[in-house]
Specification:
178 residues, alpha/beta, Rossmann fold, four-stranded parallel beta sheet, 35% helix, 10% strand
Length: 178
């Protein structure tokens, strides 16, 4: 029994450290970016939550924040960025366009980022307020502290749900050339 106690305390300490050391990669594509940038202003100060420094290399980030509309042409790029991130990794979809495709219901817009990668927290709104983004960050931190939320697909598979892996449709190039 003591071994379990020490393992649980060590896991709690590691999760506490992960909770306050989020290195984010912002994937900003549309108008929600203006509200997203307000998070670094003195009024909201995202630095209080340990997520202040953005990383512009996915290999140095563990939190992907998708801000704005994702088109079909951007989907393979988004998947590549997600695959290059270090484990454990988390994803926040910021805004209705990143969550569900928004009011763009046409052939070129993805109906949500979760069609390509697993999303841990959704932030609704068009555009969402910075307070909502801070609330989503605190929600994600609570899930990290409990040891869940870093792999939505794995959690669903453990509970017995049939979860198809996110797939990207191959591009259909016509003609030759590079």
């Amino acid at each position: 029994m003591p071994l379990t106690f020490y393992n649980s305390k060590l896991a709690d300490a590691i999760n506490w450290a992960r909770k306050y050391s989020l290195f984010q990669y912002p994937f900003v594509t549309a108008c929600c970016g203006m509200e997203f940038m307000a998070l670094w202003a003195p009024k909201y100060d995202i630095g209080r939550f340990g997520a202040e420094f953005p990383r512009f290399s996915p290999r140095q980030a563990d939190l992907l924040i998708i801000v704005g509309t994702i088109t079909e042409r951007q989907a393979p790029v988004l998947r590549r960025i997600y695959d290059q991130m270090c484990e454990p990794k988390w994803v926040i979809a910021f805004g209705v366009c990143a969550s569900t495709g928004g009011f763009y219901q046409n052939y070129s817009v993805m109906p949500g980022a979760d069609q390509v990668i697993p999303v841990d927290v959704y932030v609704p709104g068009c555009p969402p307020r910075p307070e909502q983004a801070l609330d989503a960050l605190m929600m994600l931190q609570d899930r990290i502290q409990r040891g869940e939320g870093h792999s939505q697909v794995a959690l669903k598979q453990e509970k017995g749900f049939d979860v198809p892996l996110a797939s990207i449709r191959p591009s259909q190039r016509r003609g030759g050339g590079a």
